[in-house]
Amino acid sequence: MIVKSLQLADFRNYDFLDIHFNENTNILYGNNAQGKTNILEALYICVTTKSHRGGKDKEMIRFGKEEAHIKVTLEKKGIPRKIDIHLKNHKSKGIAIDGIPIKKSSELLGLLNIVFFSPEDLSIIKNGPAERRKFMDVELCQLNNIYFYNFSQYQKVLNQRNNLLKQLTREPYLMDTLEIWDKQLMEHGSIMIEERETFIIKLNDIIKEIHKKLTGGKEQIEILYEKNTTKEQFEENLNKKRDSDLKSLTTQTGPHRDDMAFMVNGIDIRKYGSQGQQRTVALSLKLAEIQLVKSIIKDTPILLLDDVMSELDHDRKNYLLESIKDIQTMITCTGLDEFINGRLNIDKVFQVTEGTVTEKNLT
């Protein structure tokens, strides 16, 4: 899988951009707040239809404009494909694949696969459970249409149920309708739990060897899926929490309360690991993610490294560089010193300055 080119119009700080990538390693360098991450963000949107930063579509449209345009040309298993996305100020986004508009964003899933690695990911271990759930959801939604559908439906049902809990304080006669949302919550949530269980099993099979090599055989890792409820006990636990839900005005049972634990030599490093251990596990997790995607799609994903190299020490950086030689990679950084005469073959270099991208020749 190769991204050939990216065109932007009125996206973030770009008036217009037409950038053509090398199939191997591409470096985007420049000072902070120049627009490097915006390029990676645009590619990410073409996978998930959403920004990795969160927020609304209108926040990504250039100031004073009504819409932004993202166009990606890629090659998948030798076949050229195109993705067009229009972000609009006051309307839903428009998406087209190979020039044909699609009605459901799910039709886009799997066309382009990306692994995104940023400094924030180095904190995924010590951050709250929401970050770890997001990791599972983003990857599963890319790879699994069944999960994407049930995840999307679950979010809608969860919002409806939470709204009803608030409404019941004013209109208690609506209590009977709560059971309708409970059934749908269990239906979609149970499938999410099943798919997450399978995901963690596959991830464990891969990450153990990676982490062992990364730590010189000193550390053994195991990821535990900490379910808020099992699918078998979903209904029972939901009923047990009903009175508590009515008081707190929020749903306390379901996969939206799940977590992941990272056990290193039997110790939960979310709580007791050093910063170095936590960063090593985060790196192992991302490298395992790459291998997992490869095994599922039978192709290589695109790797986006957003200013992450400066956050890694020498050994971790070298291990990462050795691991990505066969993957098309986009790397953002503030300077080139760490790459010149390094272990990474640089194929294309772009300087980014105030929304202008200039290709540079290193020779």
Structure description:
This protein is α/β, with parallel strands linked by helices. The chain has two domains: 1-113 and 299-363, 3-Layer(aba) Sandwich (Rossmann fold); 123-297, Glutathione S-transferase Yfyf (Class Pi), Chain A, domain 2. The chain has nine helices and 15 strands. The strands form three sheets. Strands 2-1-4-5-6-7 form a six-stranded antiparallel sheet, covered by helices on one side. Helix 3 (145-167) packs across helix 4 (178-214). The longest helix is centred in the middle third of the chain and has 37 residues, at 178-214. The model has no long low-confidence stretch (mean pLDDT 92).
SSE topology:
Blueprint: E1 2-11, E2 14-20, E3 25-29, H1 36-48, E4 67-76, E5 79-88, E6 94-97, E7 100-101, E8 114-117, H2 129-143, H3 145-167, H4 178-214, E9 221-226, H5 234-240, H6 242-248, E10 259-264, E11 267-268, H7 269-272, H8 275-297, E12 302-306, H9 314-323, E13 329-333, E14 348-353, E15 356-360
Parallel strand pairs: 3-13, 3-14, 8-12, 12-13
Antiparallel strand pairs: 1-2, 1-4, 4-5, 5-6, 6-7, 9-10, 10-11, 14-15
Helix pairs in contact: 2-3, 3-4, 4-8
Task: Please mark out the parts with pLDDT under 50 across 5 or more consecutive residues, or reply none.
Answer: none
Distance between the termini: 28 Å
Q: What about the largest sheet?
A: 6 strands, antiparallel
Order of helices and strands: EEEHEEEEEHHHEHHEEHHEHEEE
Radius of gyration, CA atoms, in whole angstroms: 22 Å
Q: What is the spatial order of strands in the main beta sheet?
A: 2-1-4-5-6-7
CATH class placement of the largest domain = Alpha Beta
Number of strands: 15
User: How helix-rich are the residues, as a percent range?
Assistant: 25-40%
SSE class: alpha/beta
Mean pLDDT: 92
Note the total helix count: 9
CATH architecture designation of the largest domain: 3-Layer(aba) Sandwich
